[in-house]
Amino acid sequence: MPQTLHLKLTIDGYEVEAAVEVPEQPSPRRLLLPILQRLADTVVHIAEQSCAAKVSCRKGCDACCRQMVPISPTEAYALAALMERVPPRRVAAILEGFDRGRERLADVGLLGRLQDRQVLTSDQQRQLDRDYFAADVACPFLEDCACGIYPDRPLACREFLVTSPAEHCQHPTADKVTQLPLSAKVSLALIAQDQNWLPLILARDFVSTHPELISAESPAQSLQQILSVL
User: Please, are residues 158 and 37 in contact by the beta-carbon 8 Å criterion?
Assistant: First the structure.
């Protein structure tokens, strides 16, 4: 049986209240993702209302879909579960995208660095981000220059919006690309709870080698701990 939680948060000076349902019994953490996705969307909406500049992101501009997307293990399991609901023809295309991306990363010498990312310094991580983008590895879920899983896209994708001209995203540099400033990032709060992160392109590898576990904490406790980091 689900239980109802009443949430009250202050985001960038705005009070946000919501009643959400979570399972009472210990469950996979990915069941909390719809709540976290709505919260991330709310944070972004508030930021858009508060920002003088307008977001320039539009459908068809897929430069950000070629960046390294950091996701939590929770999101990796959610993507795997999503694949079970996707028509077989689309699944085949998505899996081919994962394989093609992994092969490309191996060819340009980035796969090992991605797999050993936890030992990289901040400067090395930033360089890895730049090298990944230069490798032009498209997200496996990219379809016709648009996200094929837009309603279920990762938290980091929801939070990455720019106010600079869209054409600058094709050759991103710190002086040309301006991100929409967010007062909180739900993606980082979830990663902190999971105590790990991985590039989306390696999600398939991760799920195949790390069976999903059910946390000893209740979903309500997990959600409260995630929100406490915001």
Answer: yes
The residue whose two tokens read 């320039």 is 56
Helix axes 186-194, 73-83, angle to 10 degrees: 100
Cβ-contact 167, 57 below 8 angstroms: no
b/e burial code for range 19-28 (CB count within 10 A of at least 16 → b): ebebeeeebb
Q: Which residue has the tokens 């991605």?
A: 114
Element (H, E) at 6: strand 2-11
Q: How far is CA 159 from the centre of its chain?
A: 8
State the pTM of this model: 0.94
3-state secondary structure of 198: strand
197-221 in b/e form (b: 16+ CB < 10 A) is: bbbbbbbbbbbeeeeeeeeeebbbe
User: Do 63 and 170 form a contact (C-beta atoms < 8 A)?
Assistant: yes
pLDDT in tens, 41-94: 999 999 999 999 999 998 888 999 999 999 999 999 999 999 999 999 999 999
Token digits of residue 13: 């000076």
C-alpha torsion angle, residues 96, 97, 98, 102 (rounded to 10): 100
